[in-house]
Write a structure and sequence with these properties.
191 residues, mainly beta, 11-stranded mixed sheet, 1 helix, globular
């Protein structure tokens, strides 16, 4: 599983997990405390009626998702929307299209001051790769950082439940950032 949270200071933060056993039935990702929701950037939320009719406004798209399965001829791809919900925060919904169409809906909430997305129902198919990109950066970013992500290692939490009931919990899942690595031993070529 690859999740790109593309937040504002160091864009394209990635969570990578390889799960080669049973298919996933439920996924829960909790972002680091340093990554917070920029509620001012939420320009539009697609209503459930608009979503069902395939008429979500373009400004309700906040990312992109891609899923690859060995059972399909090609990847499933599609936009990620914020959709109205019965919860206080809107749901994060990936509308995946390709050989088959799949709606992957995640409930967004906060736990201990951290943003959490829970996908309670994941289709029972093998997925070799899943990439979820949430729009970040200075323009129209959904997530902002409360601290410099490049200053220290950032950790997310991941809980997966397989279709066979087995669970995987990663309490300190390191986020990869595109931050430049510090060189060891000083500058090269100095005398």
């Amino acid at each position: 599983m690859l999740i790109d949270t593309g937040a504002r200071q160091c864009r394209d933060n990635l969570i990578t997990i390889n799960w080669d056993e049973a298919n996933i039935s439920r996924a829960e990702v909790t972002l680091p405390k340093s990554m917070i929701l920029d509620q001012g950037a939420i320009s539009k939320v697609c209503t459930r009626v608009q979503y069902s009719a395939g008429q979500c406004p373009s400004n309700s798209i906040y990312g992109f998702a891609e899923a690859t399965s060995p059972l399909l001829d090609g990847p499933l791809k599609g936009p990620v929307y914020l959709r109205s919900s019965s919860n206080p925060l809107p749901d994060l919904v990936a509308a995946l299209h390709g050989q088959v169409d799949i709606e992957l809906a995640g409930r967004t909430d906060s736990v201990n001051g951290r943003i959490r997305n829970t996908f309670d129902t994941v289709p029972d198919v093998p997925v070799s790769r899943f990439v979820l990109t949430i729009r970040g950066g200075k323009k129209k970013g959904l997530l902002v950082n409360s601290q410099n992500l490049c200053a220290r290692k950032q950790f997310a939490k991941l809980n997966l439940t397989a279709q066979n009931g087995k669970k995987l919990k990663k309490k300190k899942l390191k986020l990869r950032t595109p931050c430049k690595k510090k060189r060891r031993g000083g500058a090269k070529g100095s005398r």
